């Protein structure tokens, strides 16, 4: 990560150094039944690409 910024309401955002994507560190007080206490959410990709970051980044590199 190359940059970290926070908002007044407690949200934390980070910029990736190698992929240039924007991430949000999402955290909650208690761990849920199906959810984790801390998650790193990639806001630069959507849908299925967020579940398979290796496939989407490899495809994008091939286009360059």
Topology:
Blueprint: E1 3-6, E2 12-15, E3 22-27, E4 38-42, H1 53-63
Antiparallel strand pairs: 1-2, 2-3, 3-4
What does this structure look like?
This protein is α+β, with helices and mostly antiparallel strands and 64 residues long. The chain has one helix at residues 53-63, and strands spanning 3-6, 12-15, 22-27, 38-42. The protein has a four-stranded antiparallel sheet, with no helix packed on it.
Order of helices and strands: EEEEH
How many DSSP H or I helices? 1
Question: Could you tell me the number of beta strands?
Answer: 4
User: What do the pLDDT scores average to?
Assistant: 75
The backbone outline, from C-alpha atoms, is: globular
**Main beta-sheet annotation:** 4 strands, antiparallel
Strand content: 25-35%
Distance from N terminus to C terminus (CA atoms, Å) equals: 23 Å
- Radius of gyration, in Å, reads 14 Å
Helical content stands at 10-25%
Name the strands of the widest sheet in spatial order.
1-2-3-4
Low-confidence stretches: 55-64
**Secondary-structure content class:** alpha+beta
């Amino acid at each position: 990560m190359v940059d970290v910024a926070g908002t007044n309401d407690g949200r934390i955002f980070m910029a990736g150094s190698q992929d240039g994507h924007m991430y949000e560190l999402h955290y909650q007080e208690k761990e849920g039944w199906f959810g984790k206490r801390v998650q790193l959410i990639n806001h630069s990709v959507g849908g299925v690409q967020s579940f398979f970051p290796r496939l989407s980044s490899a495809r994008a590199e091939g286009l360059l």
